[in-house]
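Objective 1.3, modelling of assemblies. Example input:
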Amino acid sequence: MKMIATQHLDLSIGQRILVQNLDWSAQAGQCWSIIGRNGAGKSTLLRTLAGLQQPSAGSVHVNNRPLADWPLTELARERAFLAQSRHDAFAYTALESVLSARHPYHANRYWEGSDDHQAAMQALASMEVDDLAARDVRTLSGGERQRVAIAALLAQQTPLLLLDEPANALDLAHQVSVMGLLARLCREQGRTVVMIGHDLNLASRISTHVLLLMGDGRWQAGTNHDIMRPALLGDYLGHPIDMIEHEGRRIFIPKESSA
Amino acid sequence: MLALSIATLLFAGMTGSIRVPLHEIPDALRQLASGEPDSLSASLLELRASRALVAFATGGALALAGLMMQALLRNPLADPYVLGVSSGASVGALLALLLSASVLMVDAAALAGAIGVAMLLYLLARRDLRSGQAAEGGASMLLLTGVIVSAMCGSIVTLMLAIAPEGRLRSMIFWLIGDLAGAPLRLVPWLILAGCLLFAMRNARNMNMVALHAENAVTLGVRVGALRKGLFFVSALLTASAVTSAGSIGFVGLIVPHACRFAFGPDHRVLIPAVALAGGAFLVLCDTLARTIVAPQQLPVGAITAMIGAPVFLYQLHRLRK
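Predicted structure (tokens):
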């Protein structure tokens, strides 16, 4: 089943065309990585998929229904979005920030129910930040804040997850565990993950599919196996890349510049 | 159990916030009465009660407007005056005072000035209010536009003060500082306050969302553009209503939301009723002091709000730091 799909999607910023004629879809259970250089339009694409931005042309469909036809609350129960960065102006606690992700389930209730608290605490525990629940989000470290944000995303309990650099600011252990968790969600619960990442090895380890963006309109999508090739990646990332096999895993390393 | 305890804590926080100001109001009213000789005639009491009611509606409106403005701009330093709505009212009112118009005309001119500036701002910043496009830029564009418009109105006010004849200067300055003396009790500010309070309560959850997630609240099902427009107009309306009946009383709109945030946390569902009640109570208290400190002379209440508010606020701020 097509969870999310684009039809003839064009994205541009000012005069610059970022993505041209993107016909792409992600099925339930797939885990997609979007890879490309800085400014190649990765975040723009993800924000467009989330409905935060209008494409220059073409359309985005979630569950075979155009984004514009979705009531916002219903859509919020269908897909969750993790922004690249956040700015906290007020002293909300970590728990309150996660509870806010339960908003689409509240309808007209004024207060959260205990089921919401349960979902929020569960999400916090899965990110190993349940001990920070009562902390002011403004006092958290970058990595802790990021984990709380991911916990909020999980508490939204949507079949479709869009993440803009989820590994941002996380230490090595948490990068691995967060990525592992996302991969499990796809594998075991049939959820769909679309994320942006810069770490080729993390991407190659957990994603089933990869979408490459060149930044001049060109793009390439396919399975992990087809796309994660040194020559192709080097072409899209603008730097030659070597690949070595290690214990059955493919490891990508940038070549030393000959200059 | 944890969920239940948090829920009861929140609930306790809310009922407490309603009861505390409710308890303060009769207190403030009693002070009003006891500050004078015992042989109070009924009409005198009525006069004071009506003044206190005006003060309450004004304070509540200003505090609520401040809270909404802070949520709208996602900036805890915003207040109802930051966007220049009150400066517009000042220009209108001072112009009327300069031309020695009647009291009614002054009020009408203040209202017209406030609405004029709100409209101007809306036209200039309409795109930023509506769209979720410019990530963090939207709100700051509005803020910058507001500050500039406010500065422009400020210079017009200064100009009018400079050319005003000696005799009218005093009433103009009193208006600018904010004065409740002779402010007639009207039903309209109460209706506006009640209506806006209703709007705010209905949108309390959405305000939390926008305060937390800014534009990205769209992905949680909040119509951010519509909410922003609503917050802008409702807070402008509250400010215009408050300023029209009592002049530009400073500080209430900034300090009361802050003090309530310290006391009850940042959840707007608790804050909105708390702020409206605390703002009203605070201004009633200040006005009472303004009338009694150097009785029989009356001070403008705007001079008292900051004088009491600032030390209390600073004390609270630094005690919390420890």
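The mean pLDDT of chain A is 88.
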